[in-house]
Design a protein that fits this description.
Layout lengths: L3 H17 L10 H5 L1 H5 L17 H15 L11
Length: 84
Amino acid sequence: GININKGLLVLGNVISALASGDKFVPFRDSKLTRLLRGSLGGNHKTLMIACASPSHKNAEESLNCLRYANRAKNIQNKATVNVD
């Protein structure tokens, strides 16, 4: 099965590696990142939606979500049309 917490941790590592331009990106470290490889560093256009709560009870979780989304927005893909 999929370990969700491990998958999200590895996803964060992949996003950080892609955003900083590292040569090595750990796509193979989880099933989640293997599935999202084309969307994250490949030939796909991708949209990420971050959900933040206005409640002060969820401030820490919302801040973490916004930090995650900020790292993701720094990924630059060059999507091209595949023509046969």
